[in-house]
Amino acid sequence: MAWPSWLPLRENLRPLSPYGAPQVPARASLNTNENPYSPSSALQKAITDAVAKVASDLNRYPDRDATVLRTKLADYINEQSATKFSADNVWAANGSNEIIQSIFLAFAEGSVLGFTPSYSMHPLIAKVTGTAWIDGKRNADFSLNTADAVAEIQKYKPVLTFITTPNNPTGGAVTIEAIQMLADAAKSVGGLLVVDEAYAEFSQEISAVTLIANNPHVIVIRTMSKAFAFAGARVGYLVSDAAVKDAMMIVRLPYHLSALTQAAAEVAIDHRAELLGGVSTLIAARSTVVQALHDLGLTTIPSSANFVLFTGFKQDAPQLWAALLEKGVLIRDVGLSGYLRVTIGNEAENNLFISALKELI
Ligand SMILES: *Cc1c(COP(=O)(O)O)cnc(C)c1O
After folding, report:
1. Which residue ranges make up each domain of the chain?
2. 18: pLDDT confidence band, cut at 50, 70 and 90?
3. Is ligand 1 within 6 A of the CB of residue 95?
4. How far is the CA of 168 from the centre of ligand 1 (A)?
């Protein structure tokens, strides 16, 4: 970006442009890994009622610690993973991106390691907070090489090591045994292992939350934006040892999570059976889309998430991306040469994607 010379923008920010997928209207929006199913009218009403209730108190600040919400999130995790967490093990914020930023603000003194390609916000937030980012490497098929990753942790001694499982944009998941090995390596260099599990509900692997009791240096990031079908409300959280949560309370902004957000999110968690009801449908649809891509002669990276990375088309990625958009299908060019990522949508959206693709390749 061409910044005006009078603007004393920090030197390390001058080469950057704002992050974000293009927000353009399309018949099928399959670019940001949202859940395609909107809340039922009963749930919409329950949320509206809860918000109406707090509206009379909007002259007051919200619960600074979001204790009710954090307790509900802990209960949800315990239910999924047979753990014994309480609100002391959970911190919530405006999307897991805010959680990631808070982790950097609290801990990132020294260097931070991640394994590319992965979630691009990890290195971007490193840059914005002035932290040195080290790009670890993956196998050629994008899977994480545990032995190499352990060696890189031992070599660079990062204060934070980030892994994303299932990984975005590639979709592959890391086994709990491999995560334990990375956790051991991170511990041996005095660092923390941060496991971004934004897509955990779509995966069969055991969650890293089960490691926390014996590995207090493991932090797990979760979000309500993907499986929970609640992206518009902006609620992300972490699960951790209580000491990590206490550190989050040092760097958080006062009253960061609005009373409206807290009220809506509490209702959403109470209705989790409905909101998470789409997950199995999306997993089944993922197989259908993968099969259709294979039938078109394309290659896919095995995915444990609600999206698929594919390759094998003749155009370059930006070209095919634009041609699909012309046909009303918005997917994601993640900047990997020869690859595009498609989010699994509802049946009509998936069919539109496949039929548009069929005409183009
Ligand atoms: C989508 C995503 C997030 C961010 O989600 P929020 O909406 O900010 O909660 C975090 N990590 C990964 C890997 C994601 O794909």
Report:
1. 21-39+276-360, 42-271
2. confident
3. yes
4. 9
Q: For residues 265 and 73, give the distance between their C-alpha atoms in angstroms, rounded to a whole number.
A: 10
Indicate which atom in ligand 1 lies nearest the CA of residue 32.
1
User: pLDDT (tens digit, 9 = 90+) per residue, 238-274?
Assistant: 999 999 999 999 999 999 999 999 999 999 999 999 9
Tell me how far apart the terminal alpha carbons of the chain are, to the nearest angstrom. 34
| CA 199 vs CA 64, 166, 228, 281: distances in Å | 27, 6, 10, 15
For the CA atoms of 13, 114, 318, 1, the dihedral, rounded to the nearest 10 degrees, stands at 0
**Is residue 338 within 8 Å of residue 314, measured between CB atoms?**
no
Q: Which has the closest alpha carbon to 244: 121, 90, 125?
A: 90
The answer to whether residues 316 and 7 touch, using CB atoms and an 8 Å cutoff, is no
User: What DSSP state is assigned to residue 252?
Assistant: S
Q: What single-letter DSSP state applies at residue 23? A: -
Q: What is the pLDDT of residues 59-74, one digit of tens each?
A: 999 999 999 999 999 9
The predicted pLDDT at position 94 comes to: 98
> Which CATH architecture describes the domain 42-271?
3-Layer(aba) Sandwich (3.40)
3-state secondary structure of 78: helix
Answer whether 225 contacts ligand 1 (Cβ < 6 A): yes
For residue 193, the CA-to-ligand 1 centroid distance in Å is: 17
Superfamily of domain 21-39+276-360: Aspartate Aminotransferase, domain 1 (3.90.1150.10)
Band of the pLDDT at 80, cuts 50, 70, 90?
very high
Which numbered atom of ligand 1 lies nearest the CA of 100?
10
At 220-244, the pLDDT tens digits run: 999 999 999 999 999 999 999 999 9
